Every structure is written in C-alpha cells, then in structure tokens.
Amino acid sequence: MAAPAGPATLAAPAPDAPAAVPDGSGSAPDRPGAGPPEGARGGGRGRVPWARAGGPGRLDRLGPDRLVRAVRTAPRGGRAHLLPLLAVVALLAAPTGADGSGPGGATLADAASGVLAVWCAVRLTRARVRPLTRLAAVVLGLPAVGICAAAVASHDPAAGLPGVVRHLQVLVLVPAAVVLTLRDRRDLVTVARALVGLALVQGAIGVVQYATGTGASYMGEDVRAVGTFGASDVMGMATVVSYGIVAAVGLALGGPRGRARVAALVCAALLAVPLVLSFSRGAWIATVLVCGAQLALTGARRALGAALVAGALGVVLVGGLGVGSAMVQERVASITQVTAAPDRSVTDRYTLWAAAAGMWRERPLTGVGLKGFPSHRDAHASLALSSGSDTAGAGAGFRRQPLLSPHNMYLLVLGEQGLLGLLAVAGGWLALLVCACRRLPAARRTGRHLDCALVATGLLGWQLVDFLYADIGGPSTVLTAVVLGVAAWWALAGPDAPPEGARG
C-alpha cells in the first residue's frame, strides 16, 4: 500500500497523467517565460524543486531543452558558481607590465578566463546534458566559422595560430562560458556591480595619475589617465570606465527604488571624471550614445532631466573645477574636425582603414589571414601613414609603438578574415542585438528584469559602437569577452526567455 504523498514525498504521476502544476494552467515548461513556483525561489520552501519539470518521474520524458531549463530554475543557494567569472573581472585591476601585458603577452585575467572555460567544460561533462539551445549554440559558435576558414586559407597558418587562439578565446569560448555561468537576474546584477567596482578602482587610479602628472603622455604632459593598463594600452581604462558607467546607469534606471539606485547614480557620476581624463574620443561618443538610449527607453521626462543634470555636471567639472579644461575642450573640438582638419592620429586611422579595405579587395572571401594585417599593411597603405605612435609615461619610458591594426574591428575582420569572416562575426553580434532588443518591450511593460535589459543591451550597444574606432587587443580585451557573454545570456538564455520552439 503506497504511502500518501506529503510535503517531503514525491509521488510519480501515472504515465498517461499530465504533469500537475500549482496553478493548473498546464505544464510549466510549455508556457513561454514561466518561472519556477513562487515558493521554489530562494530555497524552494513548501514546493518541490522539480515542480517545473513535472516531478522526477517525468524527467525521462522531457526533451533536452526542457531538462536544461528545469535544472537552471531549480533552487540554488549562494553565488559560489560566480567566483571564476568574478575572478576574471577582479584580476583586471592587477598592474600589467610596461608593455601592457605579462610574459608572452598574456595577463592574469587571461589565465583566469581559461580557468573559467575549463571549469564550465568540466561541469557540463559531469552533468551530461546539452548546455545550450540550438539558437544559442549557432549564434555563439558562428564567429568560429570565419576564424577557422581564415586560418585554413592563410598563406602561413602557423603564424596565424596565436590569432586563432585569441579570437576563439574572446569571441567564442569566454562568452559561451559566461552564458553557462549566469543563472538568474541576481547573477547578472552581481557581475554588473563587479564591473562598476573595477571601473571605480581603475578610475580612481586614473584621476590620481592626472592630478600628480604620472599618467601617460598627452600633448607633452604626463596627464592622460590610463589606470593600471599603462601607456601601451591607453584605451584600456577608458573601456573599463565606460562599461562601469553603462552598467551603473542601467542598474539605476531599471532597478528598484532605494539606496541601490542612489548608489548606482553616484557611481555613474563619479566615473564621468576619469572618462573625461582618458581623452578617448571613441569612448566618449559610445558612452554618450548608449546612455542616451538607456534614458530614452525609460521615458522622455527622465531623459530630459538626466540631460540637464549631465550638462550641469559637465559645466562644474570643466568650467568650475577646471578638470582638464583646455585639453578637454581641444579634444572635444577635434571630434568635429575629423574631416576638415584631422590630426595625426585621425590621418593614420584613415590610412589604416584604407589599407584594410585594400587587403579585402586582394582576397575578398577569406582575407589575408589572422595576424596578417601587420605584414600586409605597407603594401596597401599610402605614404600618409606614420611609422608609429609615440608612447611614454605611466611608469614607462619613451617608445615608438608600431601601428599593427586598423583601429576598427569590422575592418580588421574584413581584412584578415574576408567577407566570410565579417558575415560570421558581425552576423552573430547582430543576432545578439536583435534578440536582446526583442526582449526590451516586455521588460519595459512589466518592469521585471528591466535592469538586466538595460545593462546587457547597453553594454552590447556600447561595444558595437566602440568597434567603429577600436578593435580587440591589449589586457582589457578579456573584459570585452565577458561583456559579450553577458549580452548573449540576456538575449538567448536570460530570465523569462522564451523556449526554443517559441522563438519567432
């Protein structure tokens, strides 16, 4: 005689009986966006952990996608699973060598990203379930198509092998590991706060560098804020601080009212100072555009108020406190003169862009091969290109740094990987952007997970804009991989994401 099913006893349903759910509306996995029962969140008091799966007696009847979703929504405690990911972010605060990297060009954060990828692989091997939906696997794996094709078609595959490893790390492996690591909204918020914390650390170091004249050389003075990244990676601190601002603004606009929102707004305001002192025009443009879009998504009145506050803050910083006043004004003015009277850096950039386009015309389908831009540059560049850029300061002596990339990610991919690579890499990013934006209206309408939406979509938007003026390279590149992973999680596997069969 079977014992009655109590709170701690799981009775397997009959083979022909439908799975019971608390509200009687059908099987939970069949309802798009259904979350675990209310009692199952945060420890599952009063509910069985496998209520969404229809009880353990039904696990063998679930498809792989529903099984993975049931596993992900089962009650969990703590945030220990985030430690490898948070270690990648935290180690970016560690000082790098004079050349901006450690031995062999790698950093501690790069090593931590490798540990993160291996840790995820071990977890998946032990779980023996398909970790990603078909859509997620295709979108995340798409860049590998162009990378491998360019490597195979290269004249010197051995020379391009380091480029293959680096591109797979940044564009495929680390983003996929981040997607597999994040589980719910609180995980994403934790990572966003870690980005803000890293930005505050790097920004504080940058402000001190400007105030004490120990930064990188800019217009003959060692005043450029570069944080711990050194003079060889002047975009590193600007990138980190920009990520922090976008994340803070997203948390403030989409999070619940209270001290957390005030703290996020204060952090965003504080980070504006080192961003200005980085003298990075590309980071300025991308940050202004993305933060403006975040504000516009939350209402015209709030956007207008924030614009007035930002304008007042700019007047106080530059006009009142004199934060880099003359240099900042000249740098801002140069943005509008990139065609009429470009400076040396802009002229070099235009020349490098033309060289990348020339490489693509020479080998339109698969490009000249990964890491092939430096060796083919002089054959396609005009005489307007200088021999390199001068770097000094921030603990390093004078150095003539060669121009080894076009400072445009899209043109770099086009030149080295050809049209096939550009369609694969940029196509994957476009798919992420479309999927992320498709989830924005529901987040705005319901208010649920709006902070996740603004943070993830904002970070992805910032990166895609910044890639017009920059490319991957330097110690901060691994953080770009983390950002792509955060955006991919929201777009493809985030909270309330529709099941694979429900995607339109």
As laid out across the biggest beta sheet, the strand order is 1-2
Helix content: 55-70%
Unreliable parts: 1-62, 70-76, 499-504
Outline: globular
Largest sheet: 2 strands, antiparallel
- Total helices: the number is 16
Rg, Å, rounded: 25 Å
Helix and strand composition category? mainly alpha
Instruction: Give average pLDDT, whole number.
Output: 79
- Helix and strand succession? HHHHHHEEHHHHHHHEEHHH
Strand portion, in percent? under 5%
How many angstroms does the end-to-end distance come to?
Answer: 49 Å
Query: How many beta-strand segments?
Result: 4
Task: Provide a concise account of the structure shown.
This protein is mainly α. The chain has 16 helices and 4 strands. A hairpin with a 2-residue loop joins strand 1 (216-218) and strand 2.
